[in-house]
Every structure is written in C-alpha cells, then in structure tokens.
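User: Teach me something about this protein's shape.
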Amino acid sequence: MIVGHHVVLASASPRRQELLRTLISDFDVFPAQIDEESHTLVDPVATARLLAKLKAEEAQIHFPNAVIIAGDTVVAVETETGWTQLSKPKDRAEARSFLLELSGRSHVVITALAIAHKANMLVDHEKTIVRFRALAAAEIETYIATSEPYDKAGGYGIQGAASHFIEGIDGSTSNVIGLPVEKLEAMLSSLPL
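Assistant: First, the predicted structure itself:
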C-alpha cells in the first residue's frame, strides 16, 4: 500500500491513532492546529472535508515528503431550518446541551479524510447514522461528570460509556470513532506514489 514511505497522522486523537495502527504500524503524529469554529460551513459534509484538507495542508508544510493522513469528524443533527453541527463541548453546560439535542433521535456522523503526498491530495468522507435512545437527566449528568465528552465531536464516544446510549448504527462503526478504516484503506490504495 504505502510501504517504504514516511507516514504522518495529522491528528492528536488517540482513537484515530489506534485505528490507524490496524493498517499501518509505523507512523508519526503531528497534531495539526486549525481553528475549527472559523471554518464551519452550512453543510456539515463541506465542513468536515474542508477541515481535513486544511489539517493535511498544515502537516505538509512540516513534512513535505511524507504521506499525510488527516481526518475531521462532524456530528450533525438535521432540523427544520438546516443542520446543527455539534463540535467538541467546551464545558459541562455545552456537553449537557449536546446530549439533550441527541437524546431520542438520529444524527449523522461524518468523518472526512484527506491524504496528501507531494502534489497529490485525495479528499473523501464517510457518513454513519447513529440513533440515541431517550436519555434520562440523571444519566446525562453522570456522563458529563466524567472526562469522556470533552474531546469528542458531539460530546460522546461510542467506544466508551456512551455506548449504552446507542439504539442503532447504520454504517461504519470505525467512522463514528473517528477514522473510517475501510474508506482509508481504499484511498491509500488509490494514492499515486
């Protein structure tokens, strides 16, 4: 696939690192610093794709000869007036608000991937629909008292205690965790090296 190439993951996410290790054993980590809020677009797919691309471009400045893998996950709820995008909650009040928004309904998790090598850039995305059961106020309070919600888009991690909130998933589970492994493998196979 990309044997013999220096690979850099442009993400500080331990979940992305863990999932990438299922495909590539040796890579460096470069946490790209992008102001995500100032690059939020109306369409959540466009937001995720733009942020992944910007992260890859920033990493390329520092590692111009490496294969760069960047990702961005957006959690979005469709409303009558459009999409509400839920980023990483800043505090307990915002985490509570996000979980109340997700309670008893479906939302979409979009992870965009950008893979860059020299002049080549591939950008694609994966969508997964997640259905939450109705959440009791007490379980929301218990969950937001942990450290789990605060570094995750939408304020929850499917691989942690919030797994009990899930009624169903349509699509890739690894996408919801933050790195759609099947999509990434296909993109890496088609990257001109």
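Now, about its shape. The mean pLDDT is 94. The first strand starts at residue 7 and ends at 9. If you'd like, I can walk through any region in more detail.
User: That's plenty for now, thanks!
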